[in-house]
Design goal:
Layout: H1 21-28, E1 36-38, E2 55-58, E3 65-68, E4 73-75, E5 79-82, E6 90-92, E7 99-100, E8 110-111, H2 118-121, E9 138-146, H3 147-151, E10 160-161, H4 163-172, E11 185-189, H5 200-204, E12 209-210, H6 212-220, E13 225-228, H7 246-255, E14 258-261, H8 266-270, E15 275-280, E16 290-291, E17 296-298
Parallel strand pairs: 9-11, 10-12, 11-13, 13-14
Antiparallel strand pairs: 1-17, 2-5, 3-4, 6-14, 6-16, 7-8, 9-15, 15-17
Helix pairs in contact: 6-7
């Protein structure tokens, strides 16, 4: 049993509760050059999509409206058909992942973060609990762990990032395991993101990533947020064939730690920037399971 949360019964913000004025001021001290890095990818047709998800943008008439007034103003709108919080650079909300703990099909025994049940949450018009609008804005210290850089190669599908890998990468960056602090955002580069729109079939076929060993270490470190350049952050397929997306359960369901997928670290790695102020505000779509949007890193 993983509930009630450390943040109290009824909490829907999870590890974003680590975002305090003190944490913001700690992150601000890392800004020394003022350079801003966009860490998200472009949302566009042809990007890899998980399962049967879709992404379609249309401009409804060109121009969509006008002209208006003596100045003859015209304008464009867009119509977007997609799983808005679960395509491209995607931020997993706390209502995205749960566990069937009792009889199959019993919604009272489908549990999510802080013990909320599917019976409490379910609605075709948006989650009634744990919608992404409850997550607090992130302004924190970010740490990029470049495992691919440490190993000198792109990691392979099904290759699990171990704690030894993490320690080795941190050491090469001049950081240490002890440098990870409560409320940090911890990001993993596997190199797999280089396949984005280059070989979508291979990109979607699986991925390298963290397993339960590193996930539980992150929980012990009391981080606020995890992310990677892959579509799930965790290793797929899992080395244990009986487990499916178990890191999602460990981080999101059990510990309220949000997961951000399909991030782009190319510019940070080029500049050898591994510690920075990290900022992301989930789009507060009431009842949504996740959020689009691009984080930024500031050095």
């Amino acid at each position: 049993k993983w509930w009630p949360s450390r943040w109290g019964p009824g909490d829907e913000a999870g590890a974003s509760n680590w975002m305090t004025p003190a944490k913001v001021l700690e992150a601000v001290k890392l800004i020394t050059t003022g350079k801003v890095y966009r860490v998200g990818k472009v949302y566009e047709a042809g990007m890899p999509l998980f399962g049967q998800r879709v992404f379609s943008l249309r401009i409804p008439a060109t121009p969509t409206g006008g002209p208006f007034g003596k100045n003859k103003l015209i304008y464009h709108d867009e119509f977007l058909s997609t799983e808005i919080g679960q395509v491209g650079t995607q931020f997993d909300g706390l209502g995205h992942i749960g566990v069937q703990v009792g009889a199959p099909g019993d919604m009272k025994e489908m549990r999510f973060y802080n013990g909320f049940t599917e019976a409490e949450m379910a609605s075709p018009y948006g989650l009634q609990k744990l919608g992404v609008e409850n997550v607090k804005p992130f302004f924190t210290r970010g740490i990029l762990i470049d495992v691919a850089g440490s190993k000198g190669r792109m990691l392979d599908k099904g290759e699990e990032i171990t704690l030894a890998d993490v320690r080795g990468a941190l050491a090469k960056e001049g950081l240490s395991e002890a440098s990870i602090r409560p409320g940090d955002a911890v990001l993993f580069n596997t190199g797999w993101g280089s396949l984005w729109k280059v070989d979508n079939a291979r990109f979607n076929s699986g991925q390298p990533g963290i397993g339960l060993e590193v996930a539980r270490w992150l929980v012990e470190k009391q981080i606020a947020y995890v992310g990677s350049d892959t579509w799930a952050t965790e290793v797929v397929p899992n080395p244990n064939p009986d487990l499916a997306f178990v890191v999602h359960n460990e981080l999101i369901t059990r510990n309220g730690i949000n997961n951000h997928e399909n991030l782009n670290f190319d510019e940070l790695i080029r500049d050898r920037v591994y510690e920075f102020a990290y900022i992301f505000v989930p789009v507060p779509i009431k009842g949504a399971t996740g959020s689009p949007g691009s984080p930024i890193a500031v050095k």
